[in-house]
């Protein structure tokens, strides 16, 4: 039985991880640009999913859909795909493929069909699966997040307890690259409960890596309250990156509190100033257009954006009501003219990037461009 993987640009790291996980079960995920027999697998996010639904429903093969959107909206997605993986796929996907190859129904925990669903009975231990194999990806070092930010799918998919790849395993995979880059919801939380940092474990990890290390920059951004003398000392001592990427999300403390972000605008200012003092360029994320955001809230955000841009760069994105989050089903509020003008001016000056008008600019590329 041939098992294929539909190439989608936003799912490249998922492909690397699941290719390796399936390889342990002697299953090869063949890359394809269209659905192909016998089975074609899709990993979908909540921005690109709608662009693939028609293709999935018309596919002349068995279709398996997973990813963030599948986990959040499996009841909708079973109308299009034959099987929908809900949650993590490293254990469930090879198990499902084995069931189908044996001629069985595929009704297993963690898989939804049109008339069946039972939650997964497993939780992925990162060390139990390779970070990647022949299909290369970044080294995933952590999953889960103890925070409950109103816009974020991460804790809804991976849970509120952080799980980490062990130091030896993370270093082993990182040393296969000339440049070591990592996947984590907060790189500075590595080895910890996600709230109380363990700088000793981070230093132990970094000290075992021989390649050029990029830590705390995409795709392993950090939280502003974790930016401190200890973390920046580690970056300057062990890492090659001269930038640090962290999320402010809003310049209004009222908005941050309502989002349950777990930090203040003061933490953002402190992190930015520390980066400046350490000769590190801060790259700071902001979200504009929260549905409950007042004019004053948005003006406070633009004030902070303007100030941060003096010392570094900013990413600004329009709020997206992602399924499965507390803010699902809401609508982004219109941006103030002042906000749009500031974003445009800073973008022209090379100080700002992002998609403050159309979120698909960042998160989606049309299917015809999904070339590896």
For the structure shown, list the relevant keywords:
372 residues; alpha/beta; Rossmann fold; pyruvate-formate lyase- activating enzyme; seven-stranded mixed beta sheet; 14 helices; 16 strands
Mean pLDDT, all residues: 95
Give helix % range: 25-40%
CATH topology of the largest domain: pyruvate-formate lyase- activating enzyme
Which spans of ≥5 residues are poorly predicted at pLDDT below 50?
A: 368-372
Order of helices and strands: EHEEHEHHEHEEEEHEHEHEHEHHEHEHEH
What is the approximate shape?
A: globular
* CATH class categorisation of the largest domain: Alpha Beta
What is the gyration radius calculated from CA atoms?
21 Å
Q: Write the CATH homologous superfamily of the largest domain.
A: tm_1862 like domain
Q: How large a portion of the residues is in β-strands, by DSSP E?
A: 15-25%
The tally of domains stands at 2
| Broad structural category | alpha/beta
Q: Main β-sheet: number of strands, strand sense, barrel status?
A: 7 strands, mixed
Strand segment tally: 16
CATH architectural grouping of the largest domain: Alpha-Beta Horseshoe
- Number of alpha- plus pi-helical segments: 14
> Cα distance, first to last residue?
23 Å
